[in-house]
Fold:
Amino acid sequence: MVNVLVFAPHPDDDIIGCGGSMAKHVQNGNKVQIVYLTSGEAGSLKYTKAELAGIRENEARNGAALMGISDLTFLGIPDGFIAYNQENLISLVNIIRSQKPTVIYIPHAEDAVCDHQVSCRLVMEACHKAAGPWFQDSLAEPWSTSTILAYEVWTPLQQVSYAEDISSFMHTKLEALRCHQSQLEMIRYDDAIYGLNRYRGILTGKGQFCEVFKVIRTGGPPW
Structure:
């Protein structure tokens, strides 16, 4: 069984970037856990931050449930202010060492959203520290993740090194994303990702709809 750990800066980033792949992992019998660095409380002026955090966490649970995922973690880092610091690094190292993932998904480093860029840097450094026998701030045993894939959210990848056919899971992905109504009422991310995944399918020739990734580390195919 493949043990999958998905890191998302905000609720809905995971579905946009690799929702089809997550649903595919679940169908294949793999374990999938999602870690949300923030609760997305800065994602609307319609609600207070406390109200929106609760709304978006509930949306994330509902969307994940449609994909067959119930193992969610919300770290509660302030939305818009994800920082590369000791506290956040230790938190991520503890998660990686305790969960022992064989595959990790993260946003790619060139994404235009600052929280996404910092999230990528944080997780990559956490993976490095988690594997080292010298990192004393986490008491768990060292763990090295064999495969790390970077997904696209706001900014499409310029260099693609892996494409996954999600044609059979596109409907599930869209239904899961549509659980995030607090965000879709402002920007139709579902329409955007439908077009992008269709474009990726056509251009890669791998399927009708595809998610693409930058391979940061590989110990073989993620399945």
